[in-house]
Amino acid sequence: xxxxxLERIANETLTCEYIVGKTExxxxxxxxxxxxxxxxxxxxxxxDNPEGFRGAMVGAKAEIVEEIENCVxxxxxxxxxxxxxxxxxxxxxxxxxxx
Length: 99
Fold this sequence. Notes:
Blueprint (H helix, E strand, L loop, with lengths): L3 E8 L4 E7 L5 E6 L10 H5 L5 E6 L1 H11 L9 H18 L1
Antiparallel strand pairs: 1-2, 2-3, 3-4
């Protein structure tokens, strides 16, 4: 599935790269990946089989925001200070791009 990237942020503490974007038909995209080279197209296996360190979601803006808040955002309240700061930076960056 092709998409237009709105924002990308990699974080070593969280060991992932995060991407938000939009499809041609106006749906929003959220991708999280540990070791994938993703440019303008989402590999179908990331959509079909999302996992903890690799996956993708396509949907309405509210669904994508909720997923980011639930997944990455949950680390803002758990773990050490470094993990909390990393999660806060990623969530704020991704959500700002969706505004």
